[in-house]
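step=encode ok
step=design start
structure_in=
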């Protein structure tokens, strides 16, 4: 992980939330590095951060339409930071297949 991660105020909370998300069995341990990188790029590991130009917020920076879709699909509340990680992983799986493919898209477009 990059040195910036250790300096980010939200990173320790993210690590705790990630540990809990992994404990649900809904995320593969193979996804930790890529998922953590993507969430860092999107939200600097801050579960409460919002985008002033859109309805995006949280770890995965879900727009309100995506939040509603994934809350319904998964039966989870996006307000819970652990669920944000689980839902972000599912979104990545659905749209890109792997975190690495999502990061490649992010590299080209500055979003995923």
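sequence_out=
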């Amino acid at each position: 992980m990059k040195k910036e991660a250790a300096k980010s105020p939200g990173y320790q909370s993210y690590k705790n939330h990630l540990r809990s998300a992994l404990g649900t069995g809904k995320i593969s341990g193979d996804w930790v590095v890529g998922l953590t990188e993507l969430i860092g790029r999107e939200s600097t590991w801050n579960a409460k951060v919002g985008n002033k130009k859109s309805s995006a917020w949280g770890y995965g920076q879900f727009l309100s339409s995506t939040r509603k879709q994934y809350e319904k699909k998964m039966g989870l509340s996006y307000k819970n930071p652990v669920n944000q990680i689980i839902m972000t992983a599912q979104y990545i799986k659905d749209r890109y297949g792997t975190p690495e493919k999502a990061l490649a898209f992010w590299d080209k477009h500055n979003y995923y």
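step=design ok
step=annotate ok -> DSSP finds six helices and no strands in the chain.
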